[in-house]
Structures are given as structure tokens and as C-alpha cells.
Amino acid sequence: MSPQKEDQRKSARKRIAVIAGDGIGQEVIPQAVQVIQAAGAAVEFAAFDWGADRFLRDGTTVPADGFAMLARDFDAILVGAFGDPRVKTNIHAMEILLGMRFKMDLYANVRPVRLLDAALCPLKGVEPKDVDFVVLRENTEGVYTDAGGVFKQGTADEIATQEDINTRKGVERIIRYACEYCKTHARLDGSPRNKVLMCDKSNAMTHAGGLWQRVFKEVGAEYPQITTQHMYVDALCMQMVRDPRQFDVIVTNIMFGDIITDLAAGLQGGLGMAASGNIHPGRTSMFEPVHGSAPPIAGKNIANPFGAILTAAMMLAHLGMAKESSRIESAVFEAVRQKKTTVDIGGSLGTREAGQFISTLIARQ
Ligand code: NAD
Ligand code: IPM
Ligand code: MN
């Protein structure tokens, strides 16, 4: 191939920054990368060592210009997890993970909730067609801005405040994202999404809740084809366990979104099965499994790589590689059906073997 042709071929390839991070991130991300390659996706990878080891070695969390570099040089970022018992302050996770979400303004945390096989759901009588919803979590403000402070620390008069920051712009764009999401993302059975449920705690947190309520009403009115609904977050948790069939698109703030997506992961077979994207349309976006670094099981080849692999599929779909994405998803479906999985979801394979099984299935397709 001529050097010019080689350059053209290369430039058609999407560039993926890979940050495996800590704990089981180091085990599941290599499997996701291998599966992407097996699917024949036109991508090239560059790995970064951001995480606890690097921080403990040289004090760096994010190298100078790190976020600008990711935005400039890459089409997407594939991330594992951050969190290490040796870093008690969790400062590296805050600066790397929340840094990417906040500083790159990845305002939509998209967390699909899908049951791939009835055997994975702890609820009786619930089948894959019954669990097919998505949580759209505001990802850049709320209580995670960490605004607040501690006064008179260590005295009997100590005061700690933790502010909940909700901007008109921030609330409006995630609610609009949820409404637009319905247009572009059908349900697994092919039927269109048309219900958006806003979840808050406006009966107690009236200032922030009031803003969410007003904006939801206004933006919802622009989408007559969408049925708008509301639930308080406590009631929603109960409904999610009682009858997950009723949900389609849920939009909520950063804190409630964090909690309800771990609950929702429980419906899918646990944290090892849940995928997510951190998206700002038109900008370099970041994709990561919902789970954390799981220190107690790290380094033992037992972590479930399917959440990371489904995350890779989500990333490829986002990058316009629908064919490669669905090849990966079909292979995960098949592996679950054949019980070629890790132990957390009833199989007997290790992390590497489960990932390898997916890669082999894809190669045979
Ligand atoms: P966790 O998600 O790491 O683990 C919760 C439970 O789920 C554990 O029992 C764990 O063994 C299990 N689990 C998680 N992923 C699994 C997988 N792929 N396969 C099998 N089992 C799996 O959450 P945690 O224990 O609350 O937190 C551990 C560390 O991870 C903390 O430092 C936390 O801050 C961090 N964390 C990071 C992220 C992230 O980087 N996105 C997300 C959540 C937690
Ligand atoms: C997640 C995690 C993070 C969050 C933590 C590690 C800050 O729990 O991605 O769900 O709360 O967003
Ligand atoms: Mn979480």
C-alpha cells in the first residue's frame, strides 16, 4: 500500500483512548479491546496509565493538558474503573473520572438497562422483553460539584454543607436529551420509545425539584408524541423492583441516577452486566461499565467482562459502527444463552475465558 493510501486508511480509523484504571478495570478492559478487534472495527487504540498506580508512583492524576489532549486526538475514550484502597482520599478517581465528565462536559450519562436472559433476573416471572429501559443521568452538576465546606471541624459546633447545584441550562439539556433519545433509540423489539419519566425528590427538595418540574413541563410540551410521567425517587425504587415493565426512558439528576442504576443493574444480573456512556453530542465522549474497581475480586480472573464488552458495543454504535456493535451484542446474548459466562451470572469461566469466548464467537459469525 502506498504511504498516501496508508495515511487515508489510517485516518478513516476511529481513534480510541483506553484508560483501564484500577482493580478489575485492568482485567475487563483488555477483553473489551480484544472483542472490538475481533469484530473488525476500524479503530486504533492508545493506552494511558492514569489510575492509582501512576498516582502513587509520581503523584499524577491527570497529566497537564490531559483532557484537551483526549478531546483533540481521540474520537472516543474507553474506561475501566477507578478506586483503590491505597488511595484513601479517592482523589485520583475524582480528578480522572469526574474530571472527564465535568471538564469535557459529558453531560448525558446514558445507562441502558436490559435483561439478556430471564435466568439473570432475581425477580420471578420477568423476561427479557420486560426489562428494556434506559436511565439518562445528568452528569455535570448536582451534589457532585462538591460545592460546600466544613466549618469548625473537630469541634462540637462542626458544620458540613454539600450544595446541590442545578442550573436551568443543565436541567434543560438533559431533559431535552431524553426526549430526543426516544427518536433515535428504539426498544429491543423494534417498537419506538415514547415515554419519558422524570425522577426527583421535589416533595422535600423543593428548590431544585421545582426547577426540574418546571423545565420538564416546558420541554415535554415540545414533544407531543412523548408521554411524560413523574415519580419520586423512593417510589421509583419500589416500582423498579415490583414491575420493571413500565419503564421506558428515565431522566434524573446525578445522585439519584447513580443509585437507581446500581439497583437497575441488579435486574440485569448484577454490576458485571451494566454498560454506560458519558456523552456530549458532537464531542469526544467516554464509555465505561457501570461497575467500579471491585478491589476484593481484582486480580483473580473472576470479574465479569460483559459489562465492559457491552460498553464497547455502545461506543462503536456511537461512532457509527452499527454492524460491528450488533455483532458484539449478539455474541454476548449467545454466550449468556449458552452459560459461557463468569460465575457471578451462573457460568464457570474466568474473565479471560469469557472474553475469549465472545471473540471466538464473533470471528465465526
Ligand atoms: P463495585 O462496583 O466495584 O463493586 C460492587 C459489587 O459488585 C462488589 O461485590 C463487586 O465484587 C461486584 N462487581 C462489580 N463489578 C463486577 C464485575 N465486573 N464482575 C463481577 N462482580 C462485580 O463498587 P464498590 O465496591 O462500591 O466500589 C469499589 C471501588 O470502585 C470504590 O473505590 C469506588 O469508589 C469505585 N467505583 C468506581 C466506579 C467508576 O470508576 N466508574 C464506579 C463505582 C465504584
Ligand atoms: C459511577 C460511580 C461514580 C459515580 C463514583 C465512582 C464517583 O459510582 O460511575 O456510577 O457516582 O458517578
Ligand atoms: Mn455508581
Describe the protein.
The chain has 365 residues and is an alpha/beta fold. The chain is 42% helix and 18% strand. It has 12 helices and 12 strands. The strands form 2 sheets. It has a 10-stranded mixed β-sheet, sandwiched between helices. Strands 6-7 form a two-stranded antiparallel sheet. Helix 2 runs parallel beside helix 12, helix 6 packs across helix 7 and helix 11 crosses helix 12. The longest helix is centred in the middle third of the chain and has 17 residues. The model has no long low-confidence stretch (mean pLDDT 96).
Could you provide a short overview of the structure?
The protein is an alpha/beta fold and 365 residues long.
Helix- and strand-based class?
A: alpha/beta
What ligands does this structure carry? nicotinamide-adenine-dinucleotide, 3-isopropylmalic acid, manganese (II) ion
Strand content: 15-25%
* Count of discrete alpha- or pi-helical segments spanning 4 or more residues: 12
Q: Kindly, what is the distance between the CA atoms of the first and last residues, rounded to a whole number of angstroms?
A: 28 Å
Shape: globular
Q: What is the H/E order?
A: HEHEHHEHEEEEHEHEHEHEEHHH
Q: What is the chains' assembly state?
A: single chain
Give me some keywords for this one.
365 residues, alpha/beta, two-stranded antiparallel sheet, 12 strands, 18% strand, binds nicotinamide-adenine-dinucleotide, binds 3-isopropylmalic acid
